[in-house]
């Protein structure tokens, strides 16, 4: 999965030189979960709030929501992070967090799920979701 997101992220600054900072922020604030212990370390034990995007390669709406959510998370300048979890690679996490449909997005603070939504949201709705999580 890293191979897929890596080259795409690298191509963007070349196409949009003015957006180079925003893109690098998005790379820093968004990561793909590698396994259960990675999830524990970088999501559950993270002092910062984390948005967890449960998605799948075959899910059309996920392909719309994912980049939109990444963009909104990057705008928060590091106040919130985004973890991407492919449910086909991490079925155990999907079951543990009762994900019955994708995309499902959880808002986590101090290891607890404090908010969630299923399906697509527009930028205004995502911004409100993130601001509530950050406490802004």
UniProtKB/TrEMBL annotation:
InterPro entries: Thioredoxin, Thioredoxin-like_sf, Thioredoxin_CS, Thioredoxin_domain
Top-level taxon of the source organism: Eukaryota
Keyword Acetylation: no
One GO biological process term: cell redox homeostasis
A Pfam family per the record: Thioredoxin
Keywords: Disulfide bond, Electron transport, Redox-active center, Transport
Annotated TM spans: none
Gene Ontology terms, MF aspect: protein-disulfide reductase activity
Domain Thioredoxin: 19-135
An annotated GO cellular component: mitochondrion
Family (UniProt): Belongs to the thioredoxin family.
Name of the protein described by the UniProt record: Thioredoxin, mitochondrial
Organism lineage string: Eukaryota, Metazoa, Chordata, Craniata, Vertebrata
Encoding gene, per UniProt annotation: Txn2
């Amino acid at each position: 999965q890293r191979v897929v997101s890596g080259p795409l992220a690298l191509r963007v600054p070349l196409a949009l030189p003015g957006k180079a900072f925003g893109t690098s922020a998005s790379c820093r604030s968004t990561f793909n979960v590698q396994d259960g212990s990675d999830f524990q370390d970088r999501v559950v034990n993270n002092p910062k709030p984390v948005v967890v995007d449960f998605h799948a390669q075959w899910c059309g709406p996920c392909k719309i929501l994912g980049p939109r959510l990444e963009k909104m998370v990057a705008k928060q300048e590091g106040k919130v992070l985004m973890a991407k979890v492919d449910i086909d690679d991490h079925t155990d996490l999907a079951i543990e967090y009762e994900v019955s449909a994708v995309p499902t997005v959880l808002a986590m603070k101090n290891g607890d799920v404090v908010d969630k939504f299923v399906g697509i949201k527009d930028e205004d709705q995502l911004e409100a979701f993130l601001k509530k999580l950050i406490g802004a």
